[in-house]
Amino acid sequence: MSIARHTVYNLVGAVLPLFVSIVTVPAYLHLIGLERYGVLSVCWLLLGYFGLFDIGLGRAITQQIARVPVEDVAQSNRLFWSAIWLSLGLVVFASLLLVPAAYWGLTLIKFDTAEVAAEVGGTVVWLAFSLPVAMIIGILNGALQGRERFAALNGVDVLSNSLSAIVPLTIAWLVGPTLWMLVAGALGVRVLSAVLLFYFCRRSIPLRRPVKVHRGDARGLLSYGGWVSITSIIGPMLVFWDRFAIGWVIGAAAVSIYVLASTVVQRAAVLPNALTRAMFPRFAYGSDDYAAKIQGQAITFLSVVMTPGMILVMALVHPLLTLWIGADLARQTAPVLLVLLPGIWFNGMAHIPYNYLQATGKPNVVAIIHSVEILPYVGILMVGLYAFGIPGVALAWTLRAVADALLLYSRSLGGLRAMRPVTAAAALLSASTVAALLLPAGSALRWAIMTLLVLGSCWQAYRMHPEIIRRGIGMGLSRVRVLLAGRTI
Q1: Are 451 and 315 in contact (CB under 8 A)?
Q2: pLDDT higher at 59 or 400
Q3: Which tens digit of pLDDT belongs to each residue from 105-126?
Q4: CB-hemisphere CA count at 13 Å for 16?
Q5: CA 16 to CA 288: how far, in whole Å?
Q6: Which of 190, 215, 324, 322 is nearest to 267 (CA)?
Q7: Measured in whole angstroms, how far is the alpha carbon of residue 231 from the centre of its chain?
Q8: Residue of 134, 138, 121 whose CA lies nearest to 187
């Protein structure tokens, strides 16, 4: 099956829960308040982070199962169960390390009310229960990705991610906004997700009866996963340390402001994540020539789609945010979102070399790059936080995303030359950020300049990939003709 079709499956799996999230955010703010929402957002990050503490076994099982022929059922079954038993063996160690760290991290946040602060202890207990479930889900996800079963995987993701937003909200509405109840509801959804994923693994790997850990498979999984685990631990710290820093220095309510901006921006990563998730197994078993070809196509495609869209969001940022969360929060959120947008563009581009390096057995390169980044990033972030507040944190994140992309491309196929086709797009995006930040919202000059930049990005996209633009315009015009014909009838 084609990469394009797998990418569509991945997009559907990400976009449908996105709409649920967008709709439920205002309801969460109304039912549980700004402070609880800030703490809850940190808890969701911890739930995701716990799943990464599997020393890279989820990524390792993807890479290794992708290399095993479908006909070799015995080896696939042996690899799967070896990964499962190793993952379960890590639960005790991970619990001893991560649960106290989660409690410590949550207590560092400044709370405006004693009632919310008192709920932290019970919340951490439910986070601890979520750890083994999260680690098992990582293995199940990895196995299905390795077999390129993206339709089943994304079907479960849509259900799980949607319910993860709806169930806690329903609990807050029916019972009350107590934090531990909301986290317990999310855990119940994850258990359901694990059961469904195992069902599809049983059919797709396919699975036979459980077997003991195979020494050779365990050595291969741990050797590969050891390097991936460094990225799995450091990567989320690079992405999410900003929330903890804001909560520590300013307070939980300020975390919500940053999370609202970050929520919008992170959704732009849906497309590169969907695309490279589909490309990973092909990178794992394809030749260098094939990898270079699909890498070049992916870079061009992401630039063509993402750049005009992001500049358009910059032009309309104030009215869009006002419509979503109200004028007061929109004024506080807009500058943060504008600073983050260029960073997520570079972060999206970085998905390609990141996945290529891991898929081709070079996770050590990614781990070393992320290890080098962490101390400078934390230092710049804290300086930005104390000097400029929340926008300073956003600037630090964007600078790190730019550096991360350049470093990853420097070690991937073609080096930094691979990014040469998108330098004009990056320049247009940077100019749009400066204009949107410096010019008053609603001014005629701002609208004129942003309109020119949107049109310029569309022209640049057409020059890079005219067939995509023509095909999109043709499909749009055909839909309009069908609608007009229907009205005439």
Answers
A1: yes
A2: 400
A3: 677 666 667 777 777 777 777 8
A4: 16
A5: 34
A6: 324
A7: 14
A8: 134
Give the Cα separation of 102 and 303 in Å (integer). 37
* Lookup result for tokens 């996800």: 141
Instruction: Report the sign of the C-alpha dihedral through residues 85, 53, 350, 224, in that order.
Output: negative
Q: 162-219, pLDDT tens digit by residue?
A: 888 888 888 888 888 887 788 888 888 889 999 999 999 988 888 888 878 777 777 7
CA distances 48 to 14, 235, 415, Å, are 15, 12, 32
| Helix (H) / strand (E) containing 308 | helix 288-315
Which of 205, 137, 116, 145 minimizes the C-alpha distance to 10?
145
pTM: 0.69
> What residue has token string 């549980």?
32
Distance CA 179, CA 37 (A): 9
Helix axes 252-266, 390-410, angle to 10 degrees: 40
Q: Mind listing the pLDDT tens digit for each residue in 346-383? A: 999 999 999 888 888 788 888 888 888 888 988 998 99
CA angle 83, 90, 373 (to 5 degrees): 95
Q: Please, what's the b/e burial string for 134-161 (b: 16 or more CB within 10 A of its CB; e: otherwise)?
A: bbbbbbbbbbbbbbbbbbbbbbbbbbbb
CA–CA separation, 51 vs 160, rounded Å? 15
Each residue's pLDDT tens digit, 271-325: 888 888 888 888 877 677 888 888 888 888 888 888 998 999 999 988 988 888 7
Question: In angstroms, how far apart are the furthest CA atoms of the chain?
Answer: 70
For residue 198, give the 3-state DSSP assignment: helix
Which of 445, 469, 447 has the alpha carbon at shortest distance from 314? 447
> What is the distance in angstroms between the CA of the first residue and the CA of the last residue of the chain?
40
CA-nearest of 388, 33, 3 to 177 is 33
Amino acid letter, 220: G
Cβ distance 300 to 466 under 8 Å? no
Check if the beta carbon of residue 408 is closer than 8 Å to that of residue 354. Answer: yes
